[in-house]
């Protein structure tokens, strides 16, 4: 429609017959995704996908964009163009994944990539300067589009993020990104962006040289803040477009900081560049264990472009893109992405009441962690403990979490204080009548839980939900003490709560649907990825982990060093080694769980001797939190040493390894098969809703990405996602092969390795797959 | 607080004769008001049970660009000059007031209760208590309304209110680290302790902390916020420059015509007598157009020329109950009637106080925009004034943010800030409020109007509005 108006405007004064000829076809072929309007001598090209909340570079979008740009270039009244999205909160969120998945082979994907490259090359070489006006997410193909333009203006809004997340889907920026980014921001920053896929905020992007100018988001005026901000961005962008044409605004900044000049100078040496390729390659190999091809291909494309020139570079990019798109790794990561999206939705509907006041019992690591992820969501949070010291420690933890954000300039000190005003710390139950939900995070003892639930029910209002943050106690046992079991639910958080994305919600047969909906709503508000599972000892995550840890203890008892054990597990695709994981979870918790689940499931959960863990706890080796566990933790030290004192304990409980099942590979499969078997059993028993939630639970519950854990700030977030997915693992390996291995272990160790019925079914019929 | 006091007083029992008179008035109010808009003989806003509180006199020192003739003074010196000017102008005995209140924003730490220091220095009786209030740019409005509250509550009969701001000298502090070291030094007992503390001082400790005209809550400077506000309402650079030019032109005219009677002469020690504001500089659109954006660079619209400048100055008003004023033989200038304070989002609506305050105070007074004869709005930035005018003219804004059925409506420009405003006369933060009220009183007398309206915005996203009624001449 605007295109028609624009044509009218630009041709006003010319022959009317020609005008009507132009209008006629365009009325019938009205464009839906891209249109433009000429303001003065600037063409304002607006993108808006009417079928979706976000703009993607779909086939339709690309076709219309090409049409519009051709018209803009052909229109003599236009001197420059502004590219802007009409959607608040989204510029272009990337290429259309479905479009890539629809391709039958690598060659077709390569062709897609080449078409994208060609289009952006035309944009880059546009005789009329194009200003990209960015408000909201500018990711993947969207960013590649923007950096092909001559100038970029971005709003300083929190929603404005730039990035190349392709690597997280096992892909690479395939429309010129690997070639243009290094030139624009320099090799180190370009690698950082493309290999981590992280989002960059507008102010950072300005500093990096990724955008040229910033615009402040506006408050309400004669329109809503969102609408007005887009209009303002457009007005400013038009001014800049005119300025570029009039040569008032230089396209390349002449003056840079000394540092950046120095940086460019250094980069001109081949030796230095080679050193960078080598370092980056080394880091990638270390973090991804070479399990994922995309990061390596990214390095290859960049290197080819820089060292052999653009022709070779673009060719390498499109070919590698095609190859990557058809790798099983990419398919798996895309599947995981879809799964994660699915687990960020509330399939139980909107709860009747929104939780506005959340009370947490127990200000320990977990309780305070839950408070930490709740207060900043505008929910009034009550943190209750029984002792002043405990409460003080918990409140300090919440404060520290927020203060660290202040130090990183994510929030201001004022916002920190204002957020903290949502937190109330107390030792009694006063004000609990206002609570909409109570989450208990007290000691894992059924008697204490029962006492707590009775105390709580005596004070809260009838609608209040009682959630238990237990890692192993069955919820129905806890609910036995409740007067209203329909309001009782399990919410199993993972430590550290602010970094671990997973929340396992456990429903009993009595839990009402509204209670579940409410718990999921709270979890989503807290930013969690949620799996909802059935009740039973250890639920899903703990139940799968327990036999694996039991096996790990046995492996230790058989004389394997904790470091070797870690290497074996991470080498298999686990993000965290088994020994480290035990330390993170807490040896005391592990001992507790092993004992509880051992009682519930019997000899199937045997393996290592629980006494090993108990002795460690008695000696104070409770894992990271106590400074000693399998390893010794010293603040400030990144390298951790094996705790020398556990050698004696292991010596005491020494077992003789059976050489028939003790090769490195066998040890790996012993650990993994117990995990997988239990996971499949959970599906068989209906604890799990489906294999997808099972995989998501394993991925997000077993470890946290290194870049979020604060240990490493750069490189390969994707490697964190290449962690172990039990159901996909069975599909890939083949159930029959797994069963065969398990039968061999069964012969030595007994029923701990007996495959469950569902696994046997899959082994018998190779056409059965967990993931379609 | 003060308005709460007023409400309580209002609901008190009243004498029958008052009730009769007012009852009759309120029955016919609307009809009369509408009929009398043109005739300029509207009814009084006096209410039963509410004391009539009057402005007896208002004065101010000349408002000077900071760093000029007042440069070597201290804040209380300016306040003293205003108080002495008030004493001189009114012939008020130095022990005849019950209370003194001053407003200020950037406090001189040596005279944190600047009201008391200035009162003593101005020769007021030391038996008169004095306190200082702060509410950003509406500090002296707060001083005046506190005075109104004290009188309405029957605590006082005569109060001096005023405001002072001195930007030629502001407290610049040592860094927090340095302060900490210095304070520890005070407590150090041995030479060794002292030496080790002195040794701990690093070069970085010596960098000072400068005060900024920035919101604490958002860390955004006011100019930056004003630029965003102007952009949000689509106020162009030209509109802003035109309004600023209007302000300077009108101020110059008023100054030349001798209309700024509230200005007193002030003999600055060691310098000449100052008797005129020195920031009034009518320029041309071309010259103003050359300036670069001062805050949002480079595409912003707020410049040095269309913003109010850093100013030194003080003001003072004498507020009394009507009975007391008449008993003392004064001829009051105006009644101080309804007032409101409002506050809103300090980030995106920082300077929209007048938009929120105006309809609210009009409603309280039972008046409509067309009843008002004299408007005096505080001009922090030309862009801020234009944004407020556009907000008041917008149905969408009225419905979405003010909870009204339609727009507030805009004051007609022929009644608006006719003797200049903060952009041209200057804006000593703490002192502007009294200038606005005094100007309304003087303009009502001069122009023969009945009602005046004062409105102002302030840092923190706050605002104020007051209705002033002419005293029968």
Please give a quick description of this structure.
Chain A has 772 residues and is α/β, with parallel strands linked by helices. Chain A has 34 helices and 20 strands.
Feature tags:
heterodimer; A: 772 residues; alpha/beta; eight-stranded mixed β-sheet; six-stranded mixed β-sheet; globular; B: 473 residues; alpha+beta; two-stranded antiparallel sheet; 16 helices; disordered N terminus; Trifunctional enzyme subunit beta, mitochondrial (chain B)
Describe the structure.
The complex is a heterodimer of chains A (772) and B (473). Chain A has 772 residues and is α/β, with parallel strands linked by helices. In chain A, the strands form 4 sheets. Chain A has an 8-stranded mixed sheet, sandwiched between helices. In chain A, helix 13 (294-308) runs antiparallel to helix 14. The longest helix of chain A has 21 residues, at 225-245. The two termini of chain A are 43 Å apart. Mean pLDDT of chain A is 87; it is low at 1-28 and 704-722. By secondary structure, chain B is α+β, with helices and mostly antiparallel strands. Chain B is 39% helix and 15% strand. Chain B contains 16 helices and 12 strands. In chain B, strands 1, 2, 3, 4, 5, 8, 9, 10, 11 and 12 form a 10-stranded mixed sheet that branches. A two-stranded antiparallel sheet of chain B has the order 6-7. Mean pLDDT of chain B is 91; it is low at 1-40. The A-B interface holds A 213, 215-216, 218-225, 228, 231-232, 236, 239-240, 412, 414, 418 and B 216-219, 224, 227-229, 231-234, 296, 299, 345, 347-349, 387, 390-391, 394, 396-397, 400-401.
Strands of the widest sheet of chain A, in order across it, are 13-12-11-14-15-16-17-18
Please write the string of helix (H) and strand (E) elements of chain B: HHEEHEHEHEHHHHEEHEHEHEHHHHEE
Largest sheet of chain A: 8 strands, mixed
Helix content of chain A: 40-55%
Extended strand count of chain A: 20
Summarize model confidence as the mean pLDDT of chain B: 91
Percent in strands of chain B: 15-25%
Instruction: Give a short account of the largest sheet of chain B.
Output: 10 strands, mixed
Alpha-beta classification of chain A = alpha/beta
- Provide the residue-averaged pLDDT of chain A: 87
Return Rg of chain B in Å: 23 Å
Taken from the alpha-carbon principal axes, the silhouette of chain A is globular
Q: Which residue ranges of chain A are poorly predicted, with pLDDT under 50 across at least 5 consecutive positions?
A: 1-28, 704-722
Low-confidence stretches of chain B: 1-40
**Strand portion of chain A:** 5-15%
SS field, number of helical segments of chain A: 34
């Amino acid at each position: 429609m605007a295109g028609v108006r624009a044509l009218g405007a630009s041709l006003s004064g010319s022959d009317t017959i020609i005008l009507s000829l132009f209008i006629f076809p365009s009325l019938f072929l009205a464009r839906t995704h891209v249109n433009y309007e000429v303001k003065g001598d600037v063409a304002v090209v607006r993108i808006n996908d009417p079928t979706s909340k976000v703009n993607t570079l779909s086939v339709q979008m690309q076709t219309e964009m090409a049409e519009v740009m051709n018209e803009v270039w052909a229109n003599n009244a236009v001197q420059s163009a502004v590219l802007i999205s009409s959607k608040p909160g989204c510029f272009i969120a990337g290429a259309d994944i479905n479009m890539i998945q629809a391709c039958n082979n690598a060659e077709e994907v390569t062709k897609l990539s080449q078409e994208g490259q060609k289009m952006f090359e035309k944009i880059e070489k546009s005789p009329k300067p194009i200003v990209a006006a960015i408000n909201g997410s500018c990711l993947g193909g969207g960013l590649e589009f923007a950096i092909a333009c001559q100038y970029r203006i971005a709003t300083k809004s929190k929603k404005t993020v730039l990035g190349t997340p392709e690597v997280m889907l096992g892909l690479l920026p395939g429309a010129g990104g690997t070639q243009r980014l290094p030139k624009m921001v320099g090799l180190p920053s370009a690698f950082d962006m493309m290999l981590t896929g992280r989002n960059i905020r507008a102010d950072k992007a300005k500093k990096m040289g990724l955008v040229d100018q910033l615009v402040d988001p506006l408050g309400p005026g004669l329109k809503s803040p969102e609408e007005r901000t887009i209009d303002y961005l457009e007005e400013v962008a038009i001014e800049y477009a005119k300025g570029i044409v009039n040569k008032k605004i230089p396209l390349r900044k002449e003056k840079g900081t000394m540092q950046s000049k120095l940086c460019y100078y250094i980069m001109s040496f081949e030796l230095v560049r080679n050193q960078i390729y080598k370092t980056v390659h080394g880091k990638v190999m270390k973090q991804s264990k070479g399990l994922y091809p995309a990061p390596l291909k990214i390095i290859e494309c960049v290197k080819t472009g820089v060292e052999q020139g653009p022709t070779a570079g673009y060719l390498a990019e499109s070919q590698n893109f095609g190859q990557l798109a058809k790798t099983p790794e990419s398919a798996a990561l895309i599947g995981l992405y879809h799964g994660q999206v699915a687990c960020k939705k509330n399939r139980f509907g909107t709860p009747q009441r929104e939780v506005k006041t959340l009370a947490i019992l127990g200000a320990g690591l977990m309780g305070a962690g839950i408070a930490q992820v709740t207060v900043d969501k505008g929910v009034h949070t009550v943190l209750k403990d029984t002792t002043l010291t405990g409460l003080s420690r918990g409140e300090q933890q919440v404060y520290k979490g927020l203060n660290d954000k202040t130090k990183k300039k994510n929030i201001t000190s004022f916002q920190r204080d204002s957020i903290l005003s949502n937190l109330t710390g107390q030792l009694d139950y006063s004000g609990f009548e206002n609570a909409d939900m109570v989450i208990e995070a007290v000691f894992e003892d059924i008697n204490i839980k029962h006492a707590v639930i009775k105390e709580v029910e005596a004070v809260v209002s009838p609608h209040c939900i009682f959630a238990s943050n237990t890692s192993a106690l069955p919820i129905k046992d806890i609910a036995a003490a409740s007067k209203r079991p329909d309001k009782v639910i399990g919410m199993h958080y993972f430590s550290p709560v602010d970094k671990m994305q997973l929340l396992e919600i456990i429903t009993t047969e009595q839990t009402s649907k509204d209670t579940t909906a409410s718990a999921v709503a709270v979890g989503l508000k807290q930013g969690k990825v949620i799996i909802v599972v059935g009740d039973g000892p250890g639920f899903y995550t703990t139940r799968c982990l327990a036999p694996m840890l039991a096996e790990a203890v046995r492996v230790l008892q058989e004389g394997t060093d904790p470091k070797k054990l870690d290497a074996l597990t991470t080498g298999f695709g686990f993000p965290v080694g088994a020994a480290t994981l035990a330390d993170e979870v807490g040896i005391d918790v592990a001992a507790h769980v092993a004992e509880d689940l051992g009682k519930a499931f019997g000899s199937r959960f045997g393996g290592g001797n629980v006494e090993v863990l108990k002795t460690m706890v008695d000696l104070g080796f409770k894992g990271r939190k106590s400074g000693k566990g399998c390893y010794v933790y010293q603040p400030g030290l990144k390298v951790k040493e094996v705790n020398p004192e556990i050698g004696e304990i292991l010596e005491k409980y020494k077992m003789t390894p059976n050489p028939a099942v003790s090769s490195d590979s066998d040890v790996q499969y012993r650990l993994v098969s117990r995990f997988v078997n239990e996971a499949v059993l959970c599906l068989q028993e209906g604890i799990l809703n489906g294999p997808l939630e099972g995989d998501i639970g394993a991925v997000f519950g077993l470890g946290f990405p290194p870049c979020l854990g604060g240990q490493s700030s750069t490189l390969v977030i994707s490697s964190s996602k290449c962690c172990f997915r039990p159901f996909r693992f069975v599909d890939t390996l083949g159930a029959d092969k797994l069963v065969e291995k398990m039968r061999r272990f069964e012969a030595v160790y007994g029923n701990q390795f007996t495959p469950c019925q569902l696994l046997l079914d899959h082994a018998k019929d190779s056409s059965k797959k967990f993931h379609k | 607080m003060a308005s709460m006091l007023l409400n309580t007083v209002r609901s008190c029992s009243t004498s029958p004769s008052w009730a009769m008179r007012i009852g009759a008035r309120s029955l016919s109010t609307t009809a009369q008001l509408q009929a009398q808009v043109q005739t300029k003989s509207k009814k009084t806003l006096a209410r039963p049970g509410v004391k009539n509180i009057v402005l007896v006199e208002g004065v101010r020192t000349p408002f000077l660009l900071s760093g000029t003739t007042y440069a070597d003074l201290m804040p209380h010196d300016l306040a003293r000059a205003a108080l002495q000017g008030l004493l001189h102008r009114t012939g008020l005995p130095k022990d005849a007031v019950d209370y003194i209140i001053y407003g200020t924003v950037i406090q001189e730490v040596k005279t944190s209760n600047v009201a008391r220091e200035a009162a003593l220095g101005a020769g007021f009786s030391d038996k008169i208590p004095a306190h200082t209030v702060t509410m950003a740019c509406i500090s002296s409005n707060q001083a005046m309304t506190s005075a109104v509250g004290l009188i309405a509550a029957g605590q006082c009969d005569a109060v001096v209110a005023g405001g002072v701001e001195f930007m030629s000298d502001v407290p610049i502090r040592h860094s927090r680290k340095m302060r900490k070291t210095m304070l520890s030094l005070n407590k150090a007992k041995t030479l060794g302790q002292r030496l080790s503390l002195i040794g701990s001082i690093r070069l970085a400790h010596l960098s000072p902390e400068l005060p900024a005209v920035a919101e604490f809550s958002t860390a955004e400077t006011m100019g930056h916020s004003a630029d965003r506000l102007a952009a949000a309402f689509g106020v162009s650079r030209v509109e802003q420059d035109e309004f600023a030019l209007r302000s300077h032109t009108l101020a110059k005219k008023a100054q030349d015509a001798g209309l700024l009677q509230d200005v007193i002469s002030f003999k600055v020690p060691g310098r000449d007598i100052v008797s005129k504001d020195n920031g009034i500089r009518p320029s041309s659109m071309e010259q103003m157009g050359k300036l670069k954006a001062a805050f949002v660079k480079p595409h912003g619209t707020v410049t040095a020329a269309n913003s109010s400048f850093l100013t030194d100055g003080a003001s003072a008003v004498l507020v009394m109950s009507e009975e007391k004023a008449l008993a003392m033989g004064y001829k009051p200038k105006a009644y101080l009637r309804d007032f409101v304070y409002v506050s809103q989002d300090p980030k995106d609506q920082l300077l929209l106080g007048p938009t929120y305050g105006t309809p609210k105070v009009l409603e309280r007074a039972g008046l409509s925009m067309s009843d008002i004869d004299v408007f005096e709005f505080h001009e922090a930035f030309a862009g801020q004034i234009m944004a407020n005018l556009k907000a008041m003219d917008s149905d969408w804004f009225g419905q979405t943010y003010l909870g009204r059925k339609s727009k507030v409506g805009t004051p007609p420009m022929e009644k608006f800030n006719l003797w200049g405003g903060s952009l041209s006369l200057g804006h000593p933060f703490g002192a502007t409020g009294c200038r606005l009220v005094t100007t309304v009183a003087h303009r009502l007398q001069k122009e023969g109007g009945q009602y005046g309206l004062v409105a102002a915005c302030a840092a923190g996203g706050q605002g104020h509005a007051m209705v002033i009624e002419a005293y029968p001449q």
